[in-house]
């Protein structure tokens, strides 16, 4: 079965390590990458995959400070050049790809500058500060259709993506009626600790905890969110003496285009959070339960308790994001990797509508 979500491939069709390397060898000249923002996800997830690809070279790194750029190169990329300013990195000749690993406040300016400089762009999730920036990024990608753009997809629900969508497509739940999501961010209930970047509006914009990430997943499984109501609360307006404006608690009532209603609950102040974020989808004929930390799926028919429904091996997906992006850059005839900027702009619509609904106290319709 063809994978309908490029970026994630079935385990059964993944090449072995040697085979994966051979895919890139005959494709042409070496691709040169500049990394802007070399934080945890770049170091832990993207870098190992990129370093495993022959004919791919990371030539320069610009981090938040020159000292951190230098340290990153010394520890991981001794042949790369540390750079103080991202503008200087963009000005380097012969760069093919800009790999953006910064916080959301820089995603739009970096993406626009990189595309205007003729570079392909891979950008971290939490696409932008707000919908306006997301629309600017999407418009820029359409102005340069020969350049590949991609957002980092969420790992939540990755393994079971094809399985959940098959269950829904086959109507095993009947018509979806309701869904319930509970998500607990990596927050800190202790207000004496300084805030993380995720709790600072000047860095994160309208993004609240994992709202946008889960909206992306839910819209892929259940279709677009068309209206939201919301309540939010900043539990600790001061953290470590620093003012905080991003909510610690958020509850959203979402109406989907298929008529289903969803309750989405987020917290970054739970002193004893459960071991996993969870989702339950209730339909007319049955229920599906998904545990995101373990990718455990349970199904129950009407009147029965849900029982384990393991993800079939031929439908299970694994992370191949970096490989898919590089392949798309090398071969323009391939489908563009997803999520693209269209999916990002779609979830930023919801993020902005939730912020408006929480502030106004009324339901907000979401338009294209």
Annotated CATH homologous superfamily of the largest domain: NAD(P)-binding Rossmann-like Domain
Question: How confident is the prediction overall: mean pLDDT?
Answer: 91
**Tally of individual domains:** 2
Structural class: alpha/beta
Regions with little confidence, pLDDT below 50 for 5+ residues: 1-6, 10-27
Give the number of DSSP strands. Answer: 19
| SS element count, helices | 11
Question: What does the radius of gyration come to?
Answer: 21 Å
* Strand arrangement, major sheet: 17-16-15-14-8-13-12-9-19
Q: What is the helix fraction of residues, given as a range? A: 25-40%
Instruction: Look at the structure and give the CATH class of the largest domain.
Output: Alpha Beta
Shape, principal axes of CA atoms? globular
Largest sheet: 9 strands, mixed
Explain this structure.
This protein is α/β, with parallel strands linked by helices. The chain folds into two domains: 8-152 and 320-339, Rossmann fold (3-Layer(aba) Sandwich), CATH 3.40.50; 161-317, Dihydrodipicolinate Reductase, domain 2, CATH 3.30.360.10. The protein contains eleven helices and 19 strands. α6 runs antiparallel to α11 and α9 (211-222) packs across α11 (341-360). The longest helix has 20 residues, at 341-360.
